[in-house]
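Listing S7. Sequence submitted for prediction.
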Amino acid sequence: MAYYKVLFEVWCDWDPGESDLEEIVRHVGLGEDAICTLRTVVKVVDRPQDIENEEAMSFFGGEQGNADQSQG
């Protein structure tokens, strides 16, 4: 299974620093006060232990060095 790191470029007419990611995504998804102008894959890895981000690793159910458990 491949894991993808994706970069989104979003333009909005409010300060996104005052919003959480869920709110930003909701605005983009509904087309309200925000627009996504770029979606690009910046990295693809085959094994979760190659993900160099603790928050992402916890999303996939593992930590660095413990990611084999998320392979099922």
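Caption to Listing S7: primary sequence and predicted structure tokens for the chain studied. The mean pLDDT is 84. Residues 10 and 60 are 25 Å apart (CA to CA).
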